[in-house]
Design brief:
two-stranded antiparallel ribbon; mainly alpha; 15 helices; globular
């Protein structure tokens, strides 16, 4: 078989089977099949949770909740929208603190676009990170600084969401409310996870030996996952994690005020938004009860089975409100109104923010070049060039070990 035949066979194997008419019938790739399966599962899960589980937990229908929401005045909706935007603006301080040089406007655009994309697909967090990474590169930031930014904001978000149920239960105890059943269980689980993750991150930052141990765990897990997926195992990450540790320590020392105050402002304003949504539909629950429901709902957004934890967060929040004495109809209506701002509005908001990003030409900067990244790119380009330029000719009239020649 000549090299041309080998290439033809390879193209046919990748592209699919050639039919009688000569047209190539393409086979769907495994990635596409897996993605379609994930989307189908997510859509079915959201439909089941919102269409069946949520009304059953609340004991009222969607039509009843819709009529309650319909009683909200337009000026109240405008006020709720302004409160939602103010919470997004508060989070831009976290973004700017995590990525020195980022402006508040750029941070708000990145936040909206990343959240909107993540809300569209299951496991969409990775897609959102990819989109915002590309946008931030156009602002001139290096891959190294973006890697640190992604790691710090990711851990910060998870820790904040796990800490919220503890704060909610503390508020209930402060006002003398009885805490039992699922509310207490959720708080205990969240407190355990928060303490475990916080301790792991804290010790890894404080001790280099622990950071190396975490790196070895990451290497082992990476090899195991690669074996299951039948992919090439990733290389050691010891050096990268140690460098990340050093950069994270420097960032926390220099920017801890922005990180702490920005996150506190963001979660507080979102909690106020939920209370305002419930008050707008006529709920009479106090701040402690609303805080507990908000905290549990935010914790459940970590569930990646549906976009943004949709369905899980709403069901958990409504169940908590009713368990704490809330009216079922107003509880369901208030939670749905809150999700309208924190989930639905983020999707068109992402489109507007991306348009803002495209129009703001003065934000554009030449990306900073990472020497290590460029060396890896050069190595990859050289390997691909060698692979496509050289072929093996196994014609029996030539040398039996193959004759390397230009394609």
């Amino acid at each position: 078989m000549t090299s041309a035949a080998v290439r033809s066979a390879g193209v046919a194997g990748v592209a699919g089977l050639r039919g009688a008419s000569g047209a190539v019938v393409r086979r769907p790739s495994r990635v596409m099949v897996r993605r379609v399966g994930q989307v189908t599962f997510a859509v079915a899960a959201v439909a089941l949770l919102l269409g069946v589980a949520l009304p059953r937990v609340a004991g009222v229908s969607w039509s009843t909740a819709g009529s309650v929401i319909g009683s909200v005045e337009p000026w109240q909706l405008l006020g709720l929208g302004a409160l939602w935007l103010l919470g997004l603006w508060a989070y831009s301080f976290v973004m700017a603190a995590s990525l020195p040089g980022l402006t508040k406007g750029q941070g708000m655009a990145l936040n909206l676009v990343g959240s909107g994309v993540s809300n569209l697909v299951p496991f969409g967090g990775a897609v959102g990170v990819g989109v915002t990474w590309k946008m931030a590169r156009q602002y001139g930031f290096s891959h190294r600084s973006l890697g640190l930014f992604t790691a710090v904001t990711g851990v910060w978000n998870v820790l904040a969401r796990l800490a919220l149920p503890v704060v909610g239960v503390a508020g209930l105890l402060a006002v003398g409310a009885r805490v039992d059943g699922p509310v207490r269980l959720a708080a205990l689980v969240a407190a355990g996870l928060c303490c475990a993750l916080g301790a792991l991150v804290g010790v890894a930052l404080a001790r280099e030996a622990t950071a190396l141990r975490v790196a070895r765990w990451a290497n082992t897990i990476g090899r195991g996952v690669a074996g299951v997926l039948r992919r090439e195992a990733p290389g050691p990450v010891d050096g990268e994690l140690l460098a990340l540790r050093g950069n994270t320590l420097a960032l926390l020392q220099a920017r801890r005020a922005g990180l702490v105050l920005g996150m506190l402002g963001h979660v507080t304003l979102q909690g106020v938004l939920m209370w305002a949504c419930l008050a707008a539909v006529g709920s009479e629950l106090g701040a402690a009860e609303v805080t507990s429901a908000y905290a549990l709902g935010r914790m459940l957004t970590i569930v990646v089975l549906t976009p943004g934890g949709t369905g899980f967060a709403e069901t958990g929040a409504v169940a908590t409100l009713i368990a704490l004495g809330g009216d079922p109809a107003t509880s369901l209506a208030g939670v749905l109104l809150f999700s309208f701002f924190t989930f639905v509005c983020e999707i068109p908001g992402a489109a507007l923010a991306y348009g803002w990003h495209l129009a703001a030409r003065h934000w554009r900067r030449e990306p900073v070049v990472d020497p290590m990244t460029e060396r890896l790119k050069d190595h990859s380009r050289s390997a691909r060039a060698l692979d496509t330029t050289l072929t093996i000719d196994d014609n029996p009239t030539t040398c039996g070990r193959g004759n390397i020649r230009a394609a």
